[in-house]
């Protein structure tokens, strides 16, 4: 298993290009199942999760070609040869559940394994299922699989989500595009990935209004066509790299980033004393002198502070001047990075969904273990600011969501290298 070795050093300087969003791409790819014409995605990130989704789509009979070194994906789902999303693929990645809505909407039946993914809490899929039931689907859970049927096709309905779910909104949105009549999704997720999916579906011929707000209205159409769509920039990769100069000083411009993707996060950086400004090419972040100030953070659905940046923000707070309280409101088991940061000398007290971090002057490098995708990158960020060498083990988590991390950070002056393991 590969490891990443980071040696703490001085300020960073330069530019980091931001890739297309993993989470957007993972929901755009299953949209190919809605049409028998090709869907082309440009600005796709080159990540292992994308390969997993390609393998899943191929197992259903779709053709997926990667062009331009993986930056362009051309998918074609002329006819599906299988409607079973097998446990062996689905267990690797929770986003696999997103093939359920499209397959059901197109062909009236689908069998999808219940998902796995990052170990950050129970993460059920009840909201996905409830939404499809509201559109007339008949569902049965048998031996770890969801068996879904809609023999006469899905029908428009009203779905009132009891809590905001990105994935359930995406599944329902895709399914509703081919349902008969009008579907209204209330308390829908407002994440930029939802807007990106709606944009792509509109290019394919779908009739959707209200994406980006809590109520999305979809007028079903008989069929969707092909389209070419650029994947939106990855706001989580953006926020992660914005934290690099915040943690170890210097000035970095994140190319392709926009403030509207990371509004609440920018406000926290500002409160911590970090300079953030939008340029014509992206977002420039700089930290001049002195320690950052402690700030409190509560994770919330968009436009609130994203849970996917909580671990990285905690890494920043580990060396802040003062005490900060980080409240995790989205996932119940998302502080697994805390004990690892404490191995590096951080002072963190975790009680339930609250972590209290008392900043220290400097962290010390140590061997640490990546426990999930965002946790692994938080340890790399912490390593950038630590004295000595930090060895981050189990980096396969990182490769699920960060493209060329060593190269991107190395190019702005970080001392970081990958060591191949057995
Ligand atoms: C997506 C993102 C993930 C991010 C999360 C929250 C992808 C591929 N992943 O995950 O990176 O951390 O949004 O921004 O886009 N829930 C239920 N029942 C359900 C579905 C969700 O109770 O059927 C709960 C979850 O356990 C969680 C909360 O709802 O507590 C939000 O989860 P959700 O927004 O669905 O996350 P994902 O779409 O899985």
UniProtKB/TrEMBL annotation:
EC class of the enzyme, as a word: transferase
UniProtKB keywords: Cell cycle, Cell division, Cell shape, Cell wall biogenesis/degradation, Cytoplasm, Peptidoglycan synthesis, Pyruvate, Transferase
An annotated GO BP: peptidoglycan biosynthetic process
Positions of UDP-N-acetyl-alpha-D-glucosamine binding: 94, 123-127, 308, 330
InterPro entries according to UniProt: Enolpyruvate_Tfrase_dom, Enolpyruvate_Tfrase_sf, MurA_subfamily, RNA3'P_cycl/enolpyr_Trfase_a/b, UDP_GlcNAc_COvinyl_MurA
Listed EC numbers: 2.5.1.7
Primary residence: cytoplasm
2-(S-cysteinyl)pyruvic acid O-phosphothioketal PTM sites in chain numbering: 118
Residue ranges of domain Enolpyruvate transferase in the record: 7-409
Pfam families recorded: EPSP_synthase (PF00275)
Subcellular location: Cytoplasm
UniProt cross-references to HAMAP family, sorted A to Z: MurA
Family, per entry: Belongs to the EPSP synthase family. MurA subfamily.
Stored PANTHER family: UDP-N-ACETYLGLUCOSAMINE 1-CARBOXYVINYLTRANSFERASE (PTHR43783)
Descriptive protein name: UDP-N-acetylglucosamine 1-carboxyvinyltransferase
Organism: Roseovarius halotolerans
Lineage, opening ranks: Bacteria, Pseudomonadati, Pseudomonadota, Alphaproteobacteria, Rhodobacterales
């Amino acid at each position: 298993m590969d490891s990443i070795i980071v040696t703490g050093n001085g300020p960073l300087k330069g530019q980091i290009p931001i890739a297309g969003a993993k989470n957007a791409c993972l929901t755009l790819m299953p949209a190919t199942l809605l049409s028998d014409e090709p869907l082309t995605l440009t600005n796709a990130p080159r990540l292992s999760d994308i390969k997993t989704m390609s393998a899943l789509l191929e197992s259903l009979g779709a053709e997926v070609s990667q062009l331009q070194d993986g930056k362009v994906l051309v998918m074609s789902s002329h006819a599906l040869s299988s409607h079973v999303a097998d446990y062996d693929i689905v267990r690797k990645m929770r986003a696999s559940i997103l093939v359920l809505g499209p397959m059901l909407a197109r062909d009236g039946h689908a069998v999808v394994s219940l998902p796995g993914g990052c170990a950050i809490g129970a993460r059920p899929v009840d909201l996905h299922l409830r939404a499809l039931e509201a559109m007339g689907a008949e569902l049965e859970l048998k031996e770890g699989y969801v068996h879904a049927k809609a023999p006469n096709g899905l029908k428009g309905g009203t779905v009132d989500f009891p809590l905001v779910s990105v994935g359930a909104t995406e599944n329902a949105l895709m399914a509703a595009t081919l349902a008969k009549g009008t579907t209204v999704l209330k308390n829908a997720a407002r994440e930029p990935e939802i807007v990106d999916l709606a944009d792509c579906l509109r290019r394919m011929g779908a009739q959707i209004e209200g994406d980006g707000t809590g109520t999305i209205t979809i007028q079903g159409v008989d069929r969707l066509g092909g389209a070419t769509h650029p994947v939106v920039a990855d706001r989580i990769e953006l926020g992660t790299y914005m934290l690099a100069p915040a943690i170890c000083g210097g000035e970095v411009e994140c190319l392709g980033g926009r403030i509207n993707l990371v509004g609440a996060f920018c406000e926290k950086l500002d409160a911590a004393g970090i300079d953030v400004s939008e340029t014509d090419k992206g977002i420039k972040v700089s930290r001049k002198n002195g320690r950052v100030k402690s700030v409190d953070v509560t994770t919330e659905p968009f436009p609130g502070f994203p849970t996917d940046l909580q671990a990285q923000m905690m890494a920043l707070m580990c060396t802040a001047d003062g005490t900060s309280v980080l409240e995790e409101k989205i996932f119940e088991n998302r502080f697994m990075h805390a004990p690892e940061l404490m191995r590096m000398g951080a002072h963190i007290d975790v009680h339930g969904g609250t972590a209290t971090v008392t900043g220290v002057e400097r962290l010390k490098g140590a061997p640490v273990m990546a426990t999930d995708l965002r946790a692994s990158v938080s340890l790399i960020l912490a390593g950038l600011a630590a004295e000595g060498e930090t060895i981050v083990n189990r980096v396969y988590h990182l490769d699920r969501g960060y493209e060329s991390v060593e190269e991107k950070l190395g190019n702005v002056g970080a001392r970081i290298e990958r060591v191949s393991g057995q």
